[in-house]
Design goal:
Strand content: 5-15%
Strand order of the largest sheet: 4-5-6-7-8-9-10-12-11
Largest sheet: 9 strands, mixed
Distance between the termini: 72 Å
Number of helices: 24
Shape: globular
């Protein structure tokens, strides 16, 4: 077979495994996929099938730090540096001296040997050039964010060799997912979102840390084999993985983030969409203030089918897990800086569910486009119009009298920064120490002795926020204790617990929002 024919065969088998009509069809799909990497024509055309994610074929990508480290530990023999993309060589040459001993560093600064040859002389007998680089960065006496910054600034291109045992779309499957045979093609309907949200998923089941680790690995591999990266998967916490069974073989593997890599305000969850155990897409949810900001993606193999139905069921799952009542889509998902979003007409996909912009200028344009579509169902917005529509968030439900809150993370962060600079200049450590003392006094927190490491971490991170809330020391004791519980939950096992506690404390939520509007207390 030609490479093109092999890929068509592979994609059809993947679809049939995700949507099997009967036992015979499922068995046939499994037979095609089980030994795909062993086919002589796959081996012959492996390089032509580069970056397809097919088992036995290579992947080239500039993996970010957490994924590069995961691959280096999990598949050390398969990961190498792709020297054909040589523009990073001088950056790598400059960084090498900080990764070795002083004696080696002095020698490296004086050699004119090519950097590739230099690394080959430095690595151990069972290392590749890539595992050497990752292991040496990982050994630096620094925090992990510093290691990440160093690695990602190098912007090295990697090659993951094809293997039957390595990550692939061919073998991607979660055997413990719900399963159901399908009697027909996937539904292309666009359901009524308000009605769908009233139908809860069949069940939400917390997985054990061991099972959670398997799901996190599956999610990471699903991104690697499509030359993508998602922080929520890369920093996924095996202790916070839940399987949402929506019935009929549809499930969402909801993955929380380890405490030290969570965002400052919204809770972040990744979700791997599974159809009969096969990953068919992924999602990121940023949740706070009763709103879930949704980044929704269907993998290319499975597009053109049930995207509308799955999207609606995803939102029903988010409502069940987080208690949210509104949803938003960020401009990138609509096409701002995202050609794929423009080409697919993503704005119209969400508009079909009733998502609308609140921005006055974009809202007027949207209304005009919707009128054109109402007069002529075949009407399609041009590229320039879609780019203008993608300039603002769209939200659901659309109610002119109710403004859906999209967490103003940047506004709050800059407000806190201005406050710290005004009081302490550049001395951030002095500022944090002073804020911590005042926050304890104002909230009545005498000791953190019973707090976990993650909870203590988030207490330290949030003290500038707590210290900036005007008059919080005059709140009732029960209300202040509830704030302390919110902070602890931010660093607790499940960040969804933090969301529930935060959104329940209306006074604290309003005070945090006010910080983004320029209302803060100076210490």
């Amino acid at each position: 077979m030609t490479p093109e024919a092999l890929l068509r065969l592979h994609e059809e088998a993947c679809r049939r495994r995700a949507y099997p009509e009967n036992e015979q069809g499922l068995a046939a799909a499994r037979r095609v996929l089980s030994g795909f990497h062993l086919r002589p024509d796959v081996r012959r055309h492996a390089e032509a099938l580069t970056d397809t994610g097919v088992a036995g074929t290579p992947i080239h990508y500039r993996f970010f730090w957490p994924t590069a480290r995961w691959l280096s530990r999990r598949y050390p023999k398969l990961l190498t540096i792709d020297w054909s993309e040589g523009e990073f060589e001088e950056r790598l040459r400059a960084a090498l001296p900080i990764l070795v001993t002083p004696a080696e560093a002095e020698a490296l600064r004086r050699t004119e040997r090519p950097v590739r040859e230099t690394i080959l002389r430095l690595l151990g007998p069972r290392q590749t050039d890539a595992t050497f680089l990752v292991e040496r960065i990982d050994a630096l006496p620094a925090t992990d964010p510093v290691r990440e910054a160093i690695h990602d600034a190098l912007d090295v291109c990697y090659r993951l060799d094809g293997s039957g045992a390595g990550p692939s779309r061919t073998r991607a499957f979660y055997e413990n997912a719900p399963f159901a045979f399908r009697s027909g093609s996937p539904s292309r309907s666009r359901p009524d979102l308000a009605s769908e949200l009233l139908i809860p998923p069949r069940s939400v089941r917390a997985l054990s840390p061991r099972e959670g680790a398997r799901v996190v690995d599956l999610a990471r591999a699903a991104m690697v084999t499509r030359s993508r990266d998602l922080d929520a998967f890369a920093h996924g916490d095996p202790r916070d993985v839940r399987l949402v069974d929506d019935g009929d073989g549809l499930a969402f593997a909801l993955i929380g983030v380890v405490p030290e890599r969570r965002l400052f305000l919204p809770a972040v969850y990744g979700a791997l969409t599974l159809r009969n155990g096969v990953p068919i897409g992924y999602v990121q949810l940023d949740v706070l203030f009763g709103t879930a900001e949704v980044s929704y993606n269907t993998f290319e193999t499975f597009r053109g089918g049930e995207a509308g139905h799955v999207f609606a069921r995803l939102l029903a799952a988010a409502r069940r897990v987080f208690g949210v009542t509104s949803f938003s889509i960020e401009p990138y998902q609509l096409g701002r800086g995202n050609d794929e979003g423009i080409a697919s007409g993503a704005w119209w996909f969400y508009a079909g569910f009733g998502f609308r912009p609140h921005d006055p200028k974009v809202s007027r344009l949207a209304a005009a486009e919707l009128r054109k579509r109402a007069r002529n169902p075949a009407y399609r917005s041009g590229r320039a119009t879609l780019l203008r529509l993608a300039e603002a968030h769209v939200t659901w439900p659309h109610d002119p009298n109710r403004h859906t809150i999209v967490t103003p993370t940047a506004a709050i962060g800059f407000a806190l920064s201005r406050r710290l600079v005004a009081a302490f200049g550049a001395a951030r450590e002095t500022a944090l120490s002073a804020c911590e003392k005042r926050a304890r006094t104002r909230l009545g927190v005498r000791s953190l002795s019973g707090w976990s490491a993650g909870e203590r971490l988030w207490w330290c991170r949030w003290v500038p926020l707590l210290d900036a809330i005007p008059g919080i020391e005059r709140w009732p004791p029960a209300s202040r204790r509830a704030v302390a519980r919110i902070v602890a939950a931010k660093g607790g096992r499940r960040e969804s617990d933090f969301v529930r506690l935060f959104d329940r404390h209306a006074r604290f939520a309003a005070a945090v929002l006010d910080l983004g509007r320029g209302r803060s207390r100076m210490g």
